[in-house]
Amino acid sequence: MNAVSYLPSDYVPLFIQLGLALGFIVVTMLVTHSIGPKRHSQKKDDPFECGIPTVGDARAPISVKYFLIAILFVLFDVEVIFLYPWAVNFLKLGTAGFIQMILFMGLLLAGFYYVLRKGVLKWE
């Protein structure tokens, strides 16, 4: 079996591309900063979010339910992503792959059932 060895000169194109990308970023930031408007005023420097004027303190408490639902969405969304490669390679995986996916789906549904039983998705 032949071992593949790389010489340092093989990485030159990679370093050139990396240097050009970083150079483009730095030059773009410097140019936009230097030619951009520099007029400041009280009204212009106020924080503005989606057309809603700011009211109160930014440190106001937010319900933990919001973050919990966001984390659960990401969790179940990432797990569902595993279904696509399984579906594409369904015939190649055979019976063992089918059993593994049944187990995976069982655990996924058990987790979802647990979340439902705990009442996490009930919004007050």
TrEMBL record:
Subcellular location: Cell membrane; Membrane
Pfam families: Oxidored_q4
Membrane topology: Multi-pass membrane protein
Regions that span the bilayer: 12-35, 66-87, 93-116
Xref: Gene3D superfamilies: NADH:ubiquinone/plastoquinone oxidoreductase, chain 3
EC number: 7.1.1.-
Enzyme class: translocase
Molecular function GO labels: NADH dehydrogenase (quinone) (non-electrogenic) activity; NADH dehydrogenase (ubiquinone) activity; quinone binding
InterPro entries: NAD(P)H_OxRDtase_bac/plastid, NADH_UbQ/plastoQ_OxRdtase_su3, NDAH_ubi_oxred_su3_sf
Protein family (similarity comment): Belongs to the complex I subunit 3 family.
Assembly and interaction partners: NDH-1 is composed of 14 different subunits. Subunits NuoA, H, J, K, L, M, N constitute the membrane sector of the complex.
Name this polypeptide is given: NADH-quinone oxidoreductase subunit A
Lineage of source species: Bacteria, Pseudomonadati, Bacteroidota, Cytophagia, Cytophagales
